[in-house]
Amino acid sequence: MKYLSDQMLIEVYHRAVDLQLDPAFIELLRAEIQTRNIGITLVSA
Questions:
Q1: Known Pfam families for this protein (predicted)?
Q2: pTM for this one?
Q3: Cα separation of 40 and 26, whole Å?
Q4: Which domain, by its residues, includes 28?
Q5: Staple 4 to which of 9, 10, 21, 32, CB 3.0 to 4.6 Å?
């Protein structure tokens, strides 16, 4: 995860949610976003 820029991490997160990928993977991305203190708008499907 450390190799992803903040912007790329956010894009990957949104794409994973859109594609309804594995919830564990989405949670991993969400945890990294929180660790980096990045504010994003969560969109419910």
A1: Sda
A2: 0.80
A3: 14
A4: 1-45
A5: 9
